[in-house]
């Protein structure tokens, strides 16, 4: 799909959303009034689109059943968005979120958790084996059921922008090979389009899909996705010049388009912040994967970071950018996952937990107000020399990043 065929005609500015007082427990404790209040603030910031995740366990508690109560909640969210002239990106099969894997019981089997992330099911952290969700026939059929059911139910809804096939799903499981990945993506896209022929489909890939071959990157998603999505955080990129390197996201956008040969929406970018008025600093955080030397930017630094990254993403031809995320989490959530162990997840918001604006929100508001036309880069810059990219990692990424910065 070319940019001219998209349902938006300018660089779209969006935000990823979990309620400030609910986080991942939103759907279990749904409040339409809360959603409306927070969506109103999002719209006041000139933001046009909201991406949110359909926690897999909540929307499909049993393999053969999509939960009607949660579908009603989703309908209410879409109605609120339509009233406010916001467009929505529901993310299916979530899955991986904020340092944990949240999965329904029927996706699990006997054996140890083989992922590097703690696993939550039925609100408990457990040690179980994750079934091969990209190849097990029962898992494929279950995902097709969810995709088709939701697409049919909301086929004509004016608030729907596109469907996302997952959030950084290679953090939950890695397909056995490229053919398996392509077949899974194709079947999910087909299920959505069988329910809504005009629906657009993409998939929330992330920078680790470019740092190693997890077989869920641009090469395997491009055939079935209408356009590509990428997530990237300079604070987590070992090859960046620092935690606030504003070249990381635009480079990942260019690299993704070069590999997949389709335009790219930058679906997640952001930075966690220190407390209001406090200086930037590092903290060592213990995780299942080891100690994380985590940077917390000052709020002013984060505002400048957003300003720089948005400008550079527009210049390289991105279709748009979605901030991670709407709000800092209320301290009532700090005793539960993910905030109890991943304390940096508490403060990725563009607004504080009390609803006051951070400088990042002001940067987004100013940029979004401009409604800039989408720029298209020269194809020769994007598509040359990509054939051996994965075979030559990590040198291929590092060398291309060096060349990108030299331009």
CATH superfamily: Glycosidases
The count of β-strands is: 16
N-C termini distance: 27 Å
Radius of gyration computed on alpha carbons:
20 Å
Number of helices: 12
* Whole-number tally of structural domains: 1
User: Strand count, sense and closure of the main sheet?
Assistant: 8 strands, parallel
Sequence of strands across the biggest β-sheet? 3-2-1-16-13-12-11-10
Sheet/helix structural class: alpha/beta
Q: Please tell me the CATH architecture by its name.
A: Alpha-Beta Barrel
Question: What would the principal axes of the Cα set say about the shape?
Answer: globular
How much helix, percentage-wise, in residues?
Answer: 25-40%
**Could you name the CATH class?**
Alpha Beta
* Mean pLDDT rating: 95
Which residues form runs of ≥5 with pLDDT under 50?
none
Tell me what portion of residues adopts beta-strand conformation.
15-25%
H and E string: EHEHHEEEEEEEHEHEHHEHEEEHEHHH
Outline of the structure:
The protein has helices at 32-44, 56-59, 68-83, 137-153, 178-195, 208-211, 218-221, 248-260, 299-315, 359-368, 379-383, 395-406; strands at residues 12-16, 49-55, 87-94, 96-97, 100-102, 108-109, 119-121, 124-126, 129-130, 163-167, 201-206, 228-231, 264-269, 281-287, 290-296, 320-323. By secondary structure, the protein is an alpha/beta fold.
């Amino acid at each position: 799909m070319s940019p001219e065929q998209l349902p938006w005609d300018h660089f779209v500015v969006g935000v990823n959303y979990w309620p400030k007082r609910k986080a991942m427990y939103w759907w279990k404790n749904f409040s339409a009034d809360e959603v409306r209040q927070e969506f109103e603030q999002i719209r006041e910031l000139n933001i046009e689109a909201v991406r949110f995740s359909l926690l897999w366990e909540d929307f499909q508690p049993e393999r053969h059943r999509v939960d009607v109560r949660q579908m009603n909640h989703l309908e209410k969210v879409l109605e609120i968005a339509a009233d406010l002239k916001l467009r929505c990106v529901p993310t299916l099969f979530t899955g991986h979120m904020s340092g944990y894997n949240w999965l329904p019981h029927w996706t699990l089997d006997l054996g140890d958790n083989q992922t590097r992330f703690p696993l939550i099911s039925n609100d408990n952290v457990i040690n179980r084996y994750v079934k091969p969700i990209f190849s097990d026939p029962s898992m494929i059929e279950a995902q097709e059921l969810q995709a088709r059911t939701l697409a049919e139910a909301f086929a004509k809804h004016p608030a729907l922008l596109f469907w996302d096939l997952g959030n950084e799903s290679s953090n939950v499981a890695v397909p056995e090979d490229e053919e398996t990945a392509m077949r899974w993506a194709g079947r999910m896209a087909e299920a959505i389009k069988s329910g809504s022929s005009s629906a657009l489909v993409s998939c929330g890939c992330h920078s680790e899909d470019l740092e190693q071959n997890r077989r869920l990157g641009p090469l395997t998603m491009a055939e079935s996705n209408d356009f590509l999505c990428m997530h990237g955080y300079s604070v987590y990129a070992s090859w960046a010049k620092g935690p606030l390197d504003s070249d990381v996201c635009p480079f990942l956008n260019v690299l993704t388009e070069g590999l997949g040969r389709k335009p790219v929406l930058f679906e997640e970018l952001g930075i966690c912040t220190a407390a209001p008025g406090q200086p930037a600093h590092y903290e060592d955080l213990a995780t299942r994967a080891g100690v994380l030397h985590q940077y917390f930017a000052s709020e002013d630094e984060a505002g400048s970071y957003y300003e720089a990254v948005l400008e550079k993403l527009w210049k390289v031809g991105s279709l748009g950018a979605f901030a991670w995320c709407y709000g800092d989490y209320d301290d009532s959530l700090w005793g539960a996952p993910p905030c109890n162990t991943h304390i940096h997840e508490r403060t990725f918001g563009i607004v504080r937990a009390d609803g006051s604006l951070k400088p990042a929100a002001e940067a987004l508001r100013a940029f979004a107000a401009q409604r800039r036309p989408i720029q298209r880069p020269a194809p020769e810059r994007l598509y040359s020399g990509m054939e051996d990219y994965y075979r030559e990692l990590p040198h291929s990424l590092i060398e291309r990043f060096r060349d990108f910065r030299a331009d």
